[in-house]
Design goal:
- There is one protein chain.
- The chain has 77 residues and is an alpha+beta fold.
- Helix content is 57%, strand content 18%.
- The protein has one domain.
- Helix 1 packs across helix 2 (20-28).
- The termini are far apart.
Length: 77
């Protein structure tokens, strides 16, 4: 079984190409996070699968993303 990958705010933001503040908003809006000890300091971390789930959720709810999908489908047909 594959090992679970954990991300801090910084690495999570880099993984989904968003700001650290966005990741903090997602946590406030219900994304489950955990505490881990990293280099002797406690840090909030999120599992990669949970992070990507929230990324996809917020991406599908984005009006800008929906507009781009509609425009791409019109150009393709």
């Amino acid at each position: 079984m594959a090992s679970v990958k954990w991300h801090t705010y910084r690495s999570a933001a880099a993984r989904v190409n968003r700001s650290e503040r966005t990741i903090r908003y997602w946590r406030q809006w219900g994304m489950p996070m955990d505490w881990r000890l990293i280099d002797g300091q406690r840090a909030r971390v999120v599992r990669e699968d949970v992070l990507l789930k929230h990324f996809r959720l917020h991406l599908t709810q984005s009006p800008v993303h929906r507009y781009r999908l509609r425009a791409a489908s019109r150009n393709a047909s």
